[in-house]
Amino acid sequence: MGAAAKFPITIYELADLGPGIHHFPGTEAEYWELIEASEYYAEFQNNEIIAMSYDTNPHSRISTSFIRILANIFWDSEKFIPHNSNRPVYVEATGAIYNPDALVVSEPVQFYQYRPGMNAEMTPVIIVEVLSKNTREHDINDKLPAYKTIPSMKMILLVESTLPKITVFSKDESSGLWSDTVYDKVEASIKIGGQEVTLKEIYKKIVFDQVEE
Fold first, then answer.
1. Shortest CA distance to 44 belongs to which of 95, 9, 81, 85?
2. For residues 38 and 51, what is the distance between their CA atoms, to the nearest angstrom?
């Protein structure tokens, strides 16, 4: 049975299932078949395919802001490559495949290759996840601990979409231990790739109404 017969393929078919994220029993082979055919992002973990609903306006704009910021910082770097949310990340420790909202990978890049032309990144150093009502539990409980197991990982940013607040998880290079710092003032700045980035820049043109998505 092909992916088209077993899973929703179009964004309209997915929308008919209701808001939020949807879990379907499936194999990794079915996951790769689905993402090749579907109109939406999907992830894979624990023999489940996780289908993502469409982005809300704040989520999309904050993600785009981070993609622009990371591109500006690392565009000319010979050691790091910025990517958008269309690049999956493979977590070797768990076998999961996730799509962060933005990421930076280190050279030399390493790929987990399912078959030629279909692969996932294995050397992320920075990952950004924008939290929303529908995705925050998955982002925090599933993806965050999995990301921390990736040897190359140095920084993980969990970004709120309903108020200016970012939690930055940083790995100490000598001990390998993780620490976290919360930034919740628009004047605050986060050091990324040696450059200071303010929350004001990250949340530029975002209007908060304090209503959950």
1. 95
2. 10
> Quick one: pLDDT at residue 182?
98
Q: Name residue, tokens 């393929």.
A: 9
Tell me how far apart the alpha carbons of residues 25 and 7 are, in angstroms, rounded to a whole number.
10
d(CA 157, CA 106): 17
Sequence-ordered alpha helix ranges (H) in the chain: 3-6, 11-15, 28-37, 57-74, 136-137, 144-148, 199-202
For 144, list phi and psi in degrees, rounded to 5. Answer: -55, -55
Helix (H) or strand (E) holding 106: strand 102-106
**6 touches 38 (CB < 8 A):** no
Measure the CA–CA gap between 132 and 178, rounded to whole angstroms: 24
Which domains does the chain possess? 3-51 (no CATH), 57-202 (3.90.1570.10)
Q: Given this model, what pLDDT does residue 128 score?
A: 98
Residues whose CB falls within 8 Å of the CB of residue 90, separated by 6 or more in sequence, listed in order: 96, 97, 112, 120, 121, 122
Q: Report the amino acid identity of residue 22.
A: H
Paired residues of 81 in beta bridges: 105
Mean pLDDT in runs of 10 for the chain (213 residues)? 76 87 94 92 95 79 94 94 92 97 96 91 98 92 98 97 96 95 95 95 81 45
